[in-house]
Amino acid sequence: MSSIKIFTVRILALTLILAGIIYVMQNYLLPNWIHPSVWLVLSFFALLTWLTGTFVHYLIKLSKENSPNILLGATALRFMASLGFIVIYLFLDVENIILFVANFFVIYLFYLIFDIYGLIANLRPHSK
């Protein structure tokens, strides 16, 4: 299986696991801890991570010697897109803003951990 297909399956698995956790918390356990816009945030991160990840895989195939720069650029792009998303959403005058920001950064951290794990897994074969 190609690396982009494996990456897509992993993103889908992470997103489905997070969606399941959010659904259970929202409907059964702690509904006051979940903002109504959490599904938009989850969709945003799933799409953003998939788009930048596939672009990184494509660029690394073209130029393996620039892979650190490509990975750093992708991480910076994800961070800037996340900041842009949250700033735009804050200007829309969302209610319960602290809960929204807390949910946003929890999901952001899960996708960041996913990216770091993928980065470490990809760099391990090159370190030998």
Features:
mainly alpha, 4 helices
The total count of helices amounts to 4
Terminal CA distance: 24 Å
Structural class: mainly alpha
The total beta strand count reads: 0
Q: Percent range for helical residues?
A: over 70%
Overall geometry: globular
Percentage of β-strand residues = under 5%
Q: How would you state the average pLDDT, rounded?
A: 87
Radius of gyration: 16 Å
Any low-confidence stretches, pLDDT <50, length ≥5? none
How would you sum up the major sheet?
none
Give the SSE order as H and E letters.
HHHH
Would you spell out the secondary-structure blueprint of this structure?
Layout: H1 3-29, H2 38-62, H3 67-91, H4 97-123
Helix pairs in contact: 1-2, 2-3, 2-4, 3-4
Written description of the protein model:
It is a single chain. This protein has 128 residues and is an all-alpha fold. The protein is built from four helices and no strands. The protein is globular and about 45 Å long. The mean pLDDT is 87.
